[in-house]
Design brief:
alpha/beta; six-stranded parallel sheet; single chain; disordered N terminus; 282 residues; 9 helices
Length: 282
């Protein structure tokens, strides 16, 4: 999937201009009648002067460039909006840089999509969104994360996900080996998983996934996933590819970014999926 252009209409001061402007006021963007203060920076170190409280929490990013949005961000999802809810920020922000930092909480009405063509996202507060697909992007949440629908992430091409789940996700799909998430989910799909959770891991990947789960989930097979796309999405081309072991995560991403991701768990609830093996919570 291709991220939209980051070229927009909102002109902002450069960080170099901020240092020489003693009465500097951050730029302001408006979405759905709400105003958000923003600040562009050329290097993280510049925030030490103009936004010291933010700098204390992001200095480990190194000298990356980016944009800070101050306060809480709460975005609706218009009926005619076809991309993810999060992508509504791109046009009003204009050129974002390598990192988009939300200084407060981020709440999205429907979904969040990242890839290697979008800015990296750092949320200093909490994240609340029904569905997340992080396809080769970088997602870091310092507060709690609430995802009632579906979470997909991978670690290809430098992709990374770091967050703390406040409660179990309805459905998690991943084959990643590198992430910082204590996994909690009702249902789970992993195209690389070789053995059941209650058996000795057959691969290093199996071991990583088993160790990451706080409690074991119900396992979704390709047949379960294909049934979802046949009956819920009515996408026969998806069914054929999924059953052939091809492009499973592409289709999951399309579903997460197309409609309410809570539909995954709701549909899987109608299937006869064996309960997970017991495990003492960590």
């Amino acid at each position: 999937m291709t991220a939209p252009s980051l070229t927009g209409c909102c002109k902002q001061l450069l960080a170099s201009e901020i240092r020489t402007a003693p009465n500097y006021t951050p730029a302001v963007i408006s979405i759905d009648g709400k105003q958000y203060k923003t600040l562009n920076f050329d290097a993280t170190s510049e925030l030490e002067t103009v936004a010291p409280e933010v700098y204390k929490r992001v200095r480990d990013l190194g000298d990356s460039d980016g944009t800070v949005i101050f306060g809480d961000v709460d975005l609706a999802h218009p009926d005619d909006w076809e991309a993810s809810t999060f992508e509504r920020l791109y046009e009003p922000l204009g050129e974002v840089g390598s990192w988009l930092i939300i200084e407060g909480n981020l709440k999205l009405a429907l979904n969040l999509y990242l890839d290697d063509g979008t800015p990296n996202l750092l949320v200093l507060g909490n994240l609340d969104v029904p569905g997340v697909s992080n396809y080769c992007g970088r997602l870091h949440v310092l507060g709690k994360t609430h995802i009632p629908g579906a979470l997909h992430f991978d670690s290809n091409d430098g992709g990374f996900t770091s967050l703390t789940l406040a409660d179990p996700v309805g459905f998690i799909a991943t084959s990643a080996n590198q992430f910082e998430v204590k996994l909690r989910a009702k249902y789970f799909f992993d195209a690389l998983q070789k053995g059941p959770f209650d058996a000795a891991p057959q691969t290093r990947h199996d071991e990583i996934i088993q160790e990451a789960f706080v409690e074991y989930p119900r396992v979704i097979t390709r047949e379960h996933l294909a049934a979802f796309f046949k009956q819920k999405v009515q996408a026969d081309d998806a069914v054929a590819e999924i059953l052939a072991g091809q492009l499973e995560y592409n289709w999951i991403t399309r579903a997460i970014t197309s409609f309410d991701a809570r539909a995954f768990a709701t549909f899987f609830d109608t299937l006869d999926i064996p309960p997970p093996p017991a495990r003492t919570p960590r």
